[in-house]
Amino acid sequence: MSNVFDDFIEPLIEREGGEKIVVDTGGTTKYGISEKGTGLSADEIKSLTKRKAIEIYRKNYFLPSKCVRLPDHLQESFFDCVVNQGQSRATKIMQKAANHKNGKGRAISVDGRIGPNTIKAVQNLEVERFRAFRLLHYAQIVLKRPDKYEKYYYGWFRRANSV
C-alpha cells in the first residue's frame, strides 16, 4: 500500500504548487495543505515541512479514501480528486461516472461512500470517463458561481486531464 502512495505523492504535491505559500479559498496553503482542510493556523501552514505535509496526505486523504481498493488505473486520478474535491465529492463523481458506464439496471447509490457496491461498479470504469465527469463537475461549479470560480477553471481542467 505505501508503494502506491509513494508513487502518487510527489506528483500530487507538484500539482498542488509545491512549497509555494498561497492564500486561496482554503486560506493559507502550502504543499496543497490548507487552513480550511486541516484546521491548522496560517503560521502552522507557513512553517509546514514537506515531511509533515506527506504525513497529512497519508493520514487525512489517502488512507480514508480507500483508493487502494479501486482498480489500479483509477487510483491516482481518484486520489487527486479526493485531495482537490474532498472524499465524499470525489466518490460521488466516481459513482456518477460508474452509473453512466453501467446503465440504469446496474446503478449504485450516489452516496459519497466507498463500499462493496461502489468497488464492484467501478471495476471497468475507464479513467477517461471518470475524468470527463470530474470536468463536468468543475464546469458546473464555474457556471453556478463564475465570479468566484472561473479563475480556477483552466487549472482544474489541466489538473483533471493530467492524471
Question: Can you walk through the features of this model?
Answer:
This protein is mainly alpha-helical and 163 residues long. It has 2 domains: 1-65, no CATH class; 71-163, no CATH class. Helix content is 67%, strand content 6%. The protein contains 9 helices and 3 strands. It has helices at residues 2-15, 35-38, 42-46, 50-65, 72-85, 87-102, 116-121, 127-144, 146-162, and strands at 22-24, 27-30, 33-34. A 3-stranded antiparallel beta sheet has the order 1-2-3.
Short description:
The chain has 163 residues and is mainly α. It is built from nine helices and three strands, in the order αβββαααααααα.
What is the C-alpha radius of gyration, as a whole number of Å? 16 Å
What is the first-to-last residue Cα distance? Answer: 19 Å
Helix count, DSSP H or I runs of 4 or more residues: 9
What structural class do helix, strand and pairing data support?
Answer: mainly alpha
Order of helices and strands: HEEEHHHHHHHH
Give a quick account of the main beta sheet: strands, pairing sense, barrel closure: 3 strands, antiparallel
Mean pLDDT: 94
Helical fraction equals: 55-70%
Return residue spans where pLDDT drops below 50 for at least 5 consecutive residues. Answer: none
Shape estimate: globular
For the largest sheet, list the strands in their spatial order: 1-2-3
Q: In total, how many beta strands?
A: 3
Beta-strand percentage range: 5-15%
Give the number of domains: 2
